[in-house]
Amino acid sequence: MNNFLLATLKANREVFKTINSIEKKSMYQKYDQGAGGDISSGFDLVAEKIFYENLSEFGSIESEESGVMNDGECKIIIDPIDGSDNIASNFSYYGTSVAKLNSYGVLEDAMVCNLATNEVFWISSQEVPMYGRLFEDKWEVIEENNFSKIGIFERAYDNPQIVQILKDNKIKFRSPGAIALSLAYARWVDFVLFVGPIRIYDVVAGLALCKGLEVVIQEDFAIVSKDKKISSKLFDIISKNFVGE
């Protein structure tokens, strides 16, 4: 793990300790609309501050909450809290998303952390995706789960027609509501499907972790699967039944 990823790991540990030590009600307050279009919460802003303090020396930070925050040759894209509504609802599926692009715009490093389960997923350029626990320093290659029974469909609530078609085709899924985390779990489920406008904050780190999988990215949907047949079937369904905004 290089210096940038070590600093990102340190920041995640600080975020975890901070959001679990402060008075939660004060964090539920909503603030202004962030650069990514969502309304920022106290959790988002506290986490953003911690990431800025730990990572700004490595390059320009672009956050879903505050947009571009400083100058630098490299670009660091962060979603300080992925799944803000989940954390506000005490639903244990929320985390952080960080990716670093070099001065040529090539993605070099990425880390996604599930703050609810202490799971950490990371990858560095020319390497394979790795997995471990937030407060441990043991890492292993993320292996594919060949016994999976479900996929993940993010924004299913916004696409009832596609939900019905998946049901008719007996394609099981869950919709937990944190796209970066869902992409990090892509090797463990049948597929990850996202239908709606694609924002860089949501997908850049998660997609880096999908290296070697079947990945289809369009302007208004994304499909990831370890199985080419599943990926092709979903692409056929989405392309015939979804009209972007």
TrEMBL record:
<keyword id="KW-0479">Metal-binding</keyword>
<feature type="binding site">
    <location>
        <position position="64"/>
    </location>
    <ligand>
        <name>Mg(2+)</name>
    </ligand>
</feature>
<keyword id="KW-0378">Hydrolase</keyword>
<dbReference type="InterPro" id="IPR000760">
    <property type="entry name" value="Inositol_monophosphatase-like"/>
</dbReference>
<dbReference type="GO" id="GO:0046872">
    <property type="term" value="F:metal ion binding"/>
</dbReference>
<dbReference type="Pfam" id="PF00459">
    <property type="entry name" value="Inositol_P"/>
</dbReference>
<keyword id="KW-0460">Magnesium</keyword>
<feature type="binding site">
    <location>
        <position position="82"/>
    </location>
    <ligand>
        <name>Mg(2+)</name>
    </ligand>
</feature>
<protein>
    <submittedName>
        <fullName>Inositol monophosphatase family protein</fullName>
        <ecNumber>3.1.3.25</ecNumber>
    </submittedName>
</protein>
<feature type="binding site">
    <location>
        <position position="202"/>
    </location>
    <ligand>
        <name>Mg(2+)</name>
    </ligand>
</feature>
<feature type="binding site">
    <location>
        <position position="79"/>
    </location>
    <ligand>
        <name>Mg(2+)</name>
    </ligand>
</feature>
<dbReference type="GO" id="GO:0052834">
    <property type="term" value="F:inositol monophosphate phosphatase activity"/>
</dbReference>
<feature type="binding site">
    <location>
        <position position="81"/>
    </location>
    <ligand>
        <name>Mg(2+)</name>
    </ligand>
</feature>
